[in-house]
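Q: what sequence does this backbone want?
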């Protein structure tokens, strides 16, 4: 599981886990789109995104189609050498 700063996703409430899974499966989404996909209330989604952002799992970007909204996505894991985790191309050939 994803872990940062001693707290990981297993320590979060079920709503935050659901929002994480929605973002994992459906890619970058606005808060409104997350509400529609998860069927959670807007307030619950806001809280879940805040918790996910606090532990560094979610990135918030500008949604260019409507600058009043933000676009949320799962942060790419970073390997110890600074490359993306799980990236086979970053590994040296033997």
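A:
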């Amino acid at each position: 599981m994803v872990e940062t700063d001693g707290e990981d996703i297993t320590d979060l409430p079920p709503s935050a886990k659901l929002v994480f899974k929605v973002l994992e499966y459906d890619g970058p989404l606005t808060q409104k789109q997350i509400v529609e996909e998860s069927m959670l209330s807007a307030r619950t989604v806001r809280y879940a995104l805040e918790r996910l952002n606090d532990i560094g799992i979610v990135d918030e970007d500008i949604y260019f189609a409507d600058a009043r909204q933000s676009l949320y996505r799962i942060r790419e894991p970073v390997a110890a050498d600074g490359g993306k985790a799980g990236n086979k191309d970053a590994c040296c050939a033997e």
